[in-house]
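Worked example

This section walks through a single chain of length 413. The input is the sequence exactly as stored; nothing has been trimmed or padded.
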Amino acid sequence: MFLGKFGGFGEMAKVLFFNIPSEGHTNPTLAYVAELVRRGEEVVYYSVPAFQRRIEATGARFRSYGEALPRDPFEVPPNLLMLGQWIMEDTQRIVQSLQEETRRERPDYVIHDALSVWGRILAYLLRRPAIASITTFAFATRHLLRTPGFGLDLLRMLPAGWPSLVNSRRLRRDLEQANDLPHDLLGRTFCNYAGLNIVFTSRLFQPCAEAFDERFKFVGPSIASRNGAPPFPYDWLDGRPLVYASLGTILTDHPEFYRTCMRVVSRMSVQAVLSTGRKLDRALLGPIPDNCHVAEYLPQLDLLKRASAFVTHGGMNSVCEGLYYNVPLVVVPQTAEQAFVGRRVAALGAGRLLKSKHFSAYRLERALQRILFEHSYRRRAEEVGADLRAAGGCQQAAAETIKFARAQVGVAQ
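Given that input, the structure is written out below as tokens.
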């Protein structure tokens, strides 16, 4: 029986953290990791070099997946079923590459993203307790299929995604046989839950929250200041309502979205700030109205503190940040997952959902007029925001993690 360094409570423990290399899965964990380090844990965080500086700023030690994970972290397939195949292919390479290295690390416990199948497998092979980090919603399939719109989204994915689904199942069987894994070790590709699951939202915002037992700790967003955020000319703001618009960091190459936003706000008594990301050719935007400020990268958290409305793609991280600061949303999803988040926002009355295929200046202007001037949207955003803040954030996440890990001392995996 391996007791690690937990001989007495309060002693430092070593943690291996395996994450999905993307903005949406990394940013919510940074304050969490920093809090673990502050409480004395030694965290070794596996990701890709694009996130090294941010990870090291938490006090964690960065480790690269290296050639075992060669993908561009800012690219995603257009279909969740295709993403599932990517994850299983990555898992094969990473498990094979990192088994000996992680054994030498002699961790006391493992934290892995719920999509990180490799993290769940390595925790089992190391015989160490596992904790899942869930930066999206927690998913319970039997409840999701009853959620309006979700089943239809799945059906739309099947024609293009069926070969990927078949390949994912084959890769899973190969992994189980090659590593002598119990058949029930792995959940579904997107739901690799563990003995403790840290969910970075609140029970109020989580759909079907009643489906999740005490193993799921809803801690709300883990908000951290972002080192290296560019300066912003705050003296440009003149007191008119501020509309902030962003499509996140990946699916940003949609010049018509930004042109539509500018066309709409140019007719309104507001100011607008648009974050376009690095993929968009700014020349495609045309003239910038006087009441608009456009930049590739902006201090999102600081702007949300001042915003009256947030036009967003519906990424979980962006949505929770907007609501954390009481900002009502217009959600224009670019993927099925984002549409699911947008439906939850609309169901709670904290914003409006606009389907991307029906996105137009007319619909956007109507949505903005409603959330800016109908007080119910601001009131519901404030209620959801208060619930997100009350969930405890990174401090609660770290406390639950350490409590669970210490309780596992001497317990066979």
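What to look for: Residues 44 and 64 are 10 Å apart (CA to CA).
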